[in-house]
Amino acid sequence: MKTLVPLALVALLMVSVSCGDDEVTPPPAFGEIEVVTETTGNVIDGDGYTITVSAGGDERTEDIGANSSLTLTNLTPGTKSLLLGDIAANCQTTNNPRNVDVVAGETLPVQFDVMCVGPNLPPDAVAGEDQTIVDLDGSGYEDVTLDGSASIDIDGQIVSWTWSVNGVAFGMGETLSVSAPVGVFTVSLTVEDDEGATSTDDVEINVVATDANLRPTADAGPNLPVLDADDNGFETVTLDGSASTDADGTIVSWDWTDGVDDWTGETVDVDFPVGIHSVLLTVTDDEGEMDTDGVTVTVVPTDGNLPPIADAGPDQRWVDDNFSFDTPVLLDGSGSTDPDGTIVSWTWVLTGAEIADTEREIVQVMAGINWIQLTVQDDLGATDIDTVQVIVEVPTLTGVSMFESTDFGGEGILIRANTNDLGADGLRGPCADDWNNCVSSIRLDDGWSAILYESAGFEGDSLLVVDSSVDLGDLDWDNRTSSIKVQAPY
Predict the structure, then answer these.
(1) Distance from C-alpha of 349 to C-alpha of 354, rounded to nearest angstrom
(2) pLDDT band at residue 213, thresholds of 50, 70 and 90?
(3) CB 304, CB 231: distance < 8 Å
(4) CATH fold of 31-116, please?
(5) Using CA atoms, how far apart are residues 65 and 445, in angstroms rounded to an integer?
């Protein structure tokens, strides 16, 4: 006798049975948003921003850098609101907050473009090295070249160089050749940037008559940390002034003093007691001119510890060509030494905050003039300090500016490189969230040019723009630009 199985049970059994690769994978339940921030301008908030996503039960807030990316994961499908927060008062962005649609199994790219404009930073005047020049022809005058080309403005450009003596200007220019009389005088260089800020530096010019005598140069040698080897409370130290020079004659005397005792000679051996001693060397040439230099002698007992010698390396100057405002710089303290032990720690500090703790390390340095202090510590706890100057210069931010309105108003964007498609993601604008067919006026900085195209990919009808500012409506090109090529003046 056959047993009949109900059809409903057969259907249930068929659904419940699966074999190996025949299993059905459920569709993904979540999507992602990749948020990118692109920040430009002359003063950028190094603390970055926050990004907040809300709606649909996905409320969350996370930190994101000023020029970085962040992926928001495990988002349920649907419309979400994105808000870029903690934007500094000197910065602005468009289309914020904005609504985006999350699709299950997909990553949605979203970019926030932020422009920051801060207070003008003053320029840095550099009048060059002091100069000593001989009046070769005996005329009482000699040509002198003044050079202020090392002056910089990290957030703009220098527009004038003014040279003066005792407050009276006598010439202008980055470099200047003048006929200077015999004598010693101080020349002041005042530079002014494109925002009207100024800075001044001095250079000493010494024009020496043909039969006059040039002053010698004293050199007392490097500082001398020494150990009291026999522990008798004294140690013999050699003071060495042999590196002293006289350009137009000879040095006839070397006189040393620590304020208590005096010694004479190019090199002299002196018994110094345990302690720290400041010694002054005075050299005199064959015409009676003198110069001085100092050296520090440190004598420590046998069971004492000689301090280390910190060396933060030479000063550095960088140009932030890609406008990242966060330049990688190598800090190198490998020249630091310890005469009687080893250095166990290197601490680098910028504006009161520790930025590195190794002998050599690459750090990110913001645009500007940065004084970085290195503190080294030896194996017995003694320390020493040295400082390095790191200058990061930002080129002037120029290019081709596009505007939504015919009067160079409304929303605007600065273009510095060729752009294939103004409708591409990342070029957020006033028309349907992009700049495609949404340009009504255009302004060019000095020397820049632009070619506008009707189609993406630099195709279709084109218009060459070389004037400093153009109302595209006057040329029947209002809202016709879909791609753009720009040319810098170099």
Answers:
(1) 4
(2) confident
(3) no
(4) Immunoglobulin-like (2.60.40)
(5) 30
Give the tens place of pLDDT for each residue, 111-166.
998 887 766 778 889 999 889 888 878 888 889 999 999 898 877 789 999 999 98
Calpha distance 440→474 (Å, rounded): 10
Q: Which fold has domain 400-487?
A: Gamma-B Crystallin; domain 1 (2.60.20)
Q: Both tokens of residue 83?
A: 């808000």
Does the pLDDT at position 191 exceed 90?
yes
| Rounded Cα gap, residues 418 and 288, in angstroms | 68
CA distances from 488 to 104, 164, 267, 415, 449 (A): 43, 36, 61, 10, 7
Q: Are 214 and 248 in contact (CB under 8 A)?
A: yes
Whether the Cβ atoms of residue 33 and residue 101 lie closer than 8 Å to each other: no
- Single-letter residue type at 466: V
Which comes out higher in pLDDT, residue 243 or 421? Answer: 243
Residue ranges per domain, the chain? Answer: 31-116, 131-208, 224-300, 316-393, 400-487
176: Cα within 13 Å, side-chain hemisphere: 21
Residue 327 DSSP SS3: strand
Q: How many CB atoms neighbour CB 111 within 10 A?
A: 14
Residue 214 CB-half CA count within 13 A: 18
Can you name the CATH fold of 224-300?
A: Immunoglobulin-like (2.60.40)
pLDDT band at 301 (very low <50, low <70, confident <90, very high): confident
CATH architecture for the domain at 131-208: Sandwich (2.60)
Lowest pLDDT segment from 2-6, 146-150, 280-284: 2-6
What is the distance between the alpha carbons of residues 467 and 449, in angstroms, rounded to a whole number? 8
DSSP 212: S
* Fold match between domain 316-393 and domain 400-487: no
For residues 481 and 435, give the distance between their C-alpha atoms in angstroms, rounded to a whole number: 8
> Hey, which residues does 227 pair with through a beta bridge?
300
Strands 224-227, 91-93: pairing is: unpaired
Amino acid making up residue 38:
E
Half-sphere exposure of 145 (CA within 13 A, CB side): 4
Q: Give me the pLDDT at residue 23, please.
A: 56
Domain 316-393 has CATH 3.20.20.70: no
Q: Which residues pair with 281 in a beta bridge?
A: 256, 293
Residue 204, CA distances (Å) to 59, 187, 207 in order: 65, 6, 10
